[in-house]
Batch of 4 targets.
Target 1
Amino acid sequence: MNYLTHLECSKCGKKHDADKVQTVCEACGKPLFARYDLAGVKEAVSPEDFVGREASMWRYWELLPVRDPKNKVSLGEGWTPLTQVKRLGETVGLQDLWVKDEGIIPTGTFKARGLAMAVSKAKELGIKRLALPSAGNAAGSMTAYGARAGMESYVFMPVDAPDVNKVECQVVGAKVVLIRGLITDCGKMVAQGIPEMGWFPLSTLKEPYRIEGKKTMGIEVAEQFGWELPDVIIYPTGGGTGIIGMWKVFDELEELGWIGSERPRMVSVQASGCAPIVKAYEEGKEESAFFENAQTLAAGLRVPHALGDFLVLRAARESGGSALAVDDDEIMDAVGLMARSEGLFACPEGAATLSALRHLIEDGKVDRDERVVLFNTGSGLKYTDLFEVDAPVFDVGEKIDYKNL
């Protein structure tokens, strides 16, 4: 059975029909949340029932919006490792540090969760043509799932987006359009093309279902910890769908009686060169302003304005968490530290969480005996253009001084 009942505006509460194509709230233009008959879910399933189910995000079917299983478009996304990193913890001074590693997911990024769900629901609603503005990784995910669903896909990316994202989109048959600008400029181009092309835009939080895929990260953390939540979750924030989704599902899990009322302190991390949410947090504002001259090597964090900024800020404040920015140099140092300590080749966005953690410990905002989860949102293998190989080269037969390599 499916327990989706309706869509509800996250700002004004207006209800919308979940069986019609929807974008944002028709009254105030804010993101829509999927709502469920949680009493029915509670009667139908318990945490014990998940044992033995498929090792993907679709194991939580009763809490997902796709009504008919035949519309599921999947590459096996979800159920990623939650790994204790003791050596890394010792380095920064924590006893109980964990990494939720989304880098091994299909398309190498957590974006696969949201786009798998959004494409599945689009298929169910009869949509045939998709479009998306993206800093890179979301485009790669959407086009992969679009290809699997047999849909047409168009992606608009900044011209300086990582080459790997351009290639993966083109390989699966999508139309790639490069814009000399930021992701917000790409979004305008997508919107302008709707009347002529008739595509459905899957922009972050401008449709209701990407968040439902992302929220499964929160359910997984709960299940993997025996239905107890950690003390702190540190999350890299561009559009913010992941942190919003987890905060949403924690309420759903509490209403189901699967967890208690305690929540992790939610920490939103951005890059110093593009930190609109951090700036709003520090200024005590409910929404952020457009961040001028946005620039960071962490492409997924270069989002100068997010539609769901007020929801990220709400999660940080209601949980007793925070929002902070870290420099690009710190981020790249953290990539190396995670790799050398644990063999985890994190993407720059994921490594930013480690940089933030070190600041939080230094400032006394994280105790050394607390359980902390860092989210690595993608594979560092998609960012090899940021690195140079420093290796000696020898001719065949040349004498090598092995001790001084």
Target 2
Amino acid sequence: MQIDAHQHFWRLARGDYAWLTPELGPIHRDFGLDDLRPLLAAAGVERTVLVQAAPTSAETDFLLDLAANEPLVAGVVGWVDFEAPDAAHRIAALAARPKLVGLRPMIQDLPDDRWMLGEAITPALHAMADEGLTFDALVFPRHLPILRMFARRYPGLDIVIDHGAKPDIAGGALDDWAREIRATADETRLVCKLSGLVTEAGPGWSAEVLRPYVEVLVEAFGADRLMWGSDWPVVTLAGSYAAWRRAAETLLAGLSDDERDAIFGQTASVFYGLDRS
């Protein structure tokens, strides 16, 4: 089963995508199932994980409604107000919705890098673990030491790092990121998404530019803790769905069939419990 572990849909008229401004030209429009279907078919991808792109409960409802009767969408990673007094109750209610597999606070946009260690979100995190929901960590490299502390504090929570923690590929920053990502892989049981790298590399990227970053992720996490995602439609800021898929296949060509099967589907299926969802 070929799975895209990270993609988005949005509808601008909904009005809760504050980050999605006209300056982001190619992606400042609606994106939905009809846009994605031909891309999945061409890549041989059979199912996807649909991830939130706005920090609102309304958007999570919108995504769950879209996914409810759509076989291509295997699971939804939504959002909740983790600091709300009734967060645990809200999470229990969301967990009862078909296809809800996880939640994602938009940590990269929060002013406090140590937000994830705050006591206010503890009830929400315990509720997530109790309900079997996963936690998508949308972080930058500077968050990784804090994320390791977070993982130790909540050992019952299944956590995945989005986009390889967004290394500054365009700026050539490799060594510090590699040290932190290796430490995170060694010291925790976190898994990681092989996604978002094209955007961090920027226009003019190539598979060879991405190679050292992909090699670090494969070495650090291994195939059983690494999952491929398109990050579509954000990927179109610097490339295309097809180009990133081809690059990933090229960069992983030296792995065994079983390892590639894990990265391109099995890891996501196991982590998100997609067979159950």
Target 3
Amino acid sequence: MTLRTAVVATYPPRHCGIAVFTRDLVRATGIQSVVALHPASSPAIYPLEVHHRLRRDVLADYRTTATSLARDGVELVSIQHEYGIWGGGDGSHVLNFVRALSMPSVATLHTVRRTPTPGQHRILVELCAAVDGVVVMSRAAATLLTRVYGVSPMRVSVIPHGVPDLPRVDPDLLKPGLDLAGRAVILSFGLIGPGKGYERAIAAMPDVVAAVPDALYVILGVTHPDLLLREGEAYRESLVARAIELGVGDHVRFVNRFVGPAELGRWLQAADVFVTPYPNLEQIVSGTLSYAVGAGKAIVSTPYEYAVELLAEGRGILVAPASVSSLATAFIDLLGDPAGRERMGARAYHFGRHMVWSEVGAAYSALFERVARSSRTSRVAGAARPLALAVLRPLPSGVLDA
């Protein structure tokens, strides 16, 4: 990337999905500078590309950091937005930061709520008005921005969630190296915490095991760091206790590690079925579901908005959100039908080719260049801040409009 660009977000070694997304975005686009959002007390040692730390809850840092980026010669700032990663009520400090910038900016929205609180609504509206471009990861999110937040469609670009470019392989070839040999593997991964629906997937396992005795449900990931600070491992321990109580302790495995991209790829490739049993039907993006589609997995999911869009045209099975029996039936049907799993996975894999990071990175780079060029033209002409962009690159046919 010739355009000198910075990105502001959480960043590894922070354990969160946005941190991982940002790391991959940096690698895919060649972004030169990272501003790491972090708690004031964080002792984390960041990699060399992190040029600035922004203490999340120290308001003075926001203007200071914006000034430092200008002094560094940064020409465009990519802002990763989710309410919880920024300081202030509902993450309101993001507005102080954007307004202090002297260069154009693009906001990637990781959360767009259908029923926001008044504070959340105000912040997102003001953020979209203050930046020069807005990115969402689904058509449903783009439609919500227009209908609920009044954002002009001309200001919004749809770029899919990036995924690693994994080859499709026979899961049985990978299983021995992960101590999964001879097991029919159902996989979930991500940060552990309430709201993911793991309880329902565990509750489905007695019926699954009765039909498929070698079935194993793997929950891969560490407890969310914020939950860990508040409650320790109480939630994970409750899931373990529930599996034992149901008599499926040997059929539910917790892998309590935050794994790197290579190991995560092996777990995905070794899985026979992937599941996101999320109870929140307004969820507008899921990195874990994106990864499973990109890996060509047979997928079971509750019908939250992102899943409905991503799993259309036979790329997965949607089950009733509160129905343990529907989950169990879907698991049993897929585990008992290798040919059906292969067909479903192949459809997902073909669809996922436009989501690999090389494609997504190119789309972001083109967007950044276009926004910077438009901003330069406007400054020369003395015009007001331009409307940003229409959908930069349409999603393939078959993706549902909300």
Target 4
Amino acid sequence: MLFSGWLDLPWWGYVLAALALTHITIASVTIYLHRCQAHRALELHPVASHFFRFWLWLTTGMVTKEWAAIHRKHHAKVETEEDPHSPQVHGINRVLWLGVFLYVKEAYNDETLQRYGHGTPDDWIERKVYTPHSMSGVLVLLAADLLVFGVVPGALIWLTQIAWIPFWAAGVINGVGHFFGYRNYDQVPDASTNIVPWGILIGGEELHNNHHAFAASAKLSSKWYEFDIGWMYICILESLGLATVKRLAPTPRFARPKPAADLETLHAVIANRYDVLSRYAKSFRRTYAEELERLRHWSPRDAELLRSLKRALMRGQAAAGGEATRLAEVLKNSRALATAVAMRHELAALWERSNASTEQLLRQLQDWCRRAEASGVAPLVDFSQRLRSYALA
């Protein structure tokens, strides 16, 4: 009798049922809470929106305003002491295994909810049911699981459902997604990583570095070999009239290089800044390889020193201590690399100068291109010509 429920399944049937139910929860988190509510990357039809709200109330007890506010604060304060769940601050073990407690702690911070929780649902059912009775849903779910699957299978499936999001979302994405993995966008000023290129198990959230590069994009994959199952679901919902995509990561568009950068070039460069820096990184690697080959013939010692500093040069971040001293010595003996390093900082500063007018930024971009093409550094000359070919979509 303990195994009696409306459904009498073999053991693997209960496993598949648990995986299917938890996958719906994952899809609800990534589509509704994350991409729709926290980042406004898409709009959902009221039918789809309320299904996701109801399902999350049943399976997680999470409140939309709390989740969106905490996630927005994470982006605003990423990798700082104010970041609610950075493994760079709290340690990977604490975030991975106890991430849910960091979430709950931040949920009690009224300042976070007031500052970052704007625009989330505030209708009658949110005020009277979902928010004040957030944990009632998981009890309703327990009763439903016991009724459908029987006592023992139902209890196990219920435990799996309520533990799934705390581990995979609060632990793995917030922890591993800022600690281990690969990065398509090294220029993103945080530690976010793509865990694997196939975002299936966690709804596409595995592509976390892509997300931090383009936080307002409804699609998290960016390379041809990456797959975002959450985006697939959004496309299906859109085809059914249940979703409207509002924002996607910009796709670089190129035209014939202009004699001089103009306002369209400036706007296109800023809009595609991560692509610009990625292409600059390729140009920089070419300069590095040419200088390494030159120094092998003229100064083997400097060549060996340059080789040891490859990582520091490529990542474009400020060096410190002994590394900074060695780096300065290398750049003193390589005009091409010194020029490439200096101009990389100047290029990145274009979209960081929030107080500069459009006209000032345009003059700076034109001056940058002029100096790059007069530098005599072939990769830099080629890159500047490519830069003048960026166009708006």
